[in-house]
Amino acid sequence: MSATTPERRLTVSDLTRMYRDGQTIPMITAYDFPTAQLVDEAGIPAILVGDSLGEVMLGYESTVRVSLDEMLHHTKAVVRGTKRALIVGDMPFLTYATEDEALENAARFMRDAGTGAVKVEGGVRSARIIETLVKAGIPVMGHIGWTPQAKYGMGGKTGVQGKDREQARRQLADAFAVQEAGAFAIVLELMPQQLAAAITERLRIPTIGIGAGPDCSGQIQVVTDILGLGSFIPRHARPYIRLREQIGQALGAYAADVVAGTYPGPEQTSRMDEAILAEALGQGQADQAPTDELVGIPLDRDL
Ligand code: KIV
């Protein structure tokens, strides 16, 4: 981008262009304003406000518990924190069970929260819904392999999908169904490297892998895993920094300084003219208690 080109929000067409140009697409999740700002400043072209929000930010035991309102609340913060990244809103469990529900709830992501696309889980089983959304002008990202919203339906245990012949065939059929329904990209989650590579080779839309090896058209990770902030980091994630330890040390140091009386210090404290204080407290009576008139004067945060 030249210095004179105004910054603009990327769209799914930009992701398609990157894919056609052979650029590998980095994506990451974000759930709040400051993290979204950092991701945008790092130049990552697309953010998923994933329903992993439920587990990593809200403390639920699964994504199934996340509500549409919770997703929208966080998605709006991510949109406000970014100028350039394409924002994809993850439609939570049972918000796209029928075509009408899918349209109404996808509209809340696009119209009310300001996303540029939505993501839905499921291959063949979601193809009709994807087609309906795409026909209505809503760009859709698909998601196959391990689909966390189907956790309980899939036996409750997280695991790599597609290792045996039947499963591999099913994943291939799912990938084609999502593509033919009109999705602009597809997440492949927890899949053997060779199967993800074979799907990537056969599709004409980008595959975005998570735990699916290096041969996908792009990669996505949960931001708290990459930053080393989570209490559990999955095998497929590489923590580029150990924020959990660093934040723990910083918080411990803060508490110790408060207890020792070394925080706040002179640099964090403002002072006033003693004479003015004496006047304010009643001339010549600085040692007296404040009069009733002084009670309730609001403190200015910038003091
Ligand atoms: O919710 C999420 O974060 C996701 C990614 C893991 C793809 O769906």
Summarize the structure.
The protein is built from eleven helices and eight strands. With 303 residues, it is α/β, with parallel strands linked by helices. Helix 2 (33-41) packs across helix 4 (68-80), helix 4 runs parallel beside helix 5 and helix 5 packs across helix 6.
Textual characterization of the structure:
- By secondary structure, the protein is of the alpha/beta class.
- It has two domains: 12-239, TIM Barrel, CATH 3.20.20.60; 248-298, no CATH class.
- The chain has helices at residues 12-20, 33-41, 53-56, 68-80, 99-113, 127-135, 165-180, 193-202, 223-226, 243-260, 274-280; strands spanning 25-29, 46-49, 86-90, 117-119, 140-145, 185-189, 207-210, 218-221.
- The protein has an eight-stranded parallel β-barrel, surrounded by seven helices.
- The longest helix is centred in the C-terminal third of the chain and has 18 residues, at 243-260.
- It is elongated, with a radius of gyration of 25 Å.
- Bound molecules: 3-methyl-2-oxobutanoic acid.
Write the layout of secondary structure elements.
Elements: H1 12-20, E1 25-29, H2 33-41, E2 46-49, H3 53-56, H4 68-80, E3 86-90, H5 99-113, E4 117-119, H6 127-135, E5 140-145, H7 165-180, E6 185-189, H8 193-202, E7 207-210, E8 218-221, H9 223-226, H10 243-260, H11 274-280
Parallel strand pairs: 1-2, 1-8, 2-3, 3-4, 4-5, 5-6, 6-7, 7-8
Helix pairs in contact: 2-4, 4-5, 5-6
The structure holds 3-methyl-2-oxobutanoic acid.
Extract low-pLDDT stretches: 292-299
Distance from N terminus to C terminus (CA atoms, Å) equals 42 Å
Strand content: 5-15%
Determine the mean pLDDT. 93
Query: What's the oligomerization state?
Result: single chain
Number of strands: 8
Looking at this structure, what is the CATH superfamily of the largest domain?
Phosphoenolpyruvate-binding domains
Shape assignment:
elongated
**Spatial order of strands in the largest sheet:** 1-2-3-4-5-6-7-8
**CATH top level class name of the largest domain:** Alpha Beta
Main sheet record? 8 strands, parallel, barrel
Range of helix content: 25-40%
CATH overall fold name of the largest domain: TIM Barrel
Q: What is the C-alpha radius of gyration, as a whole number of Å?
A: 25 Å
Instruction: List SSEs in N-to-C order.
Output: HEHEHHEHEHEHEHEEHHH
Count of spatially separate domains: 2
Small ligands present: 3-methyl-2-oxobutanoic acid
Structural class: alpha/beta
CATH architectural arrangement of the largest domain: Alpha-Beta Barrel
Number of alpha- plus pi-helical segments: 11
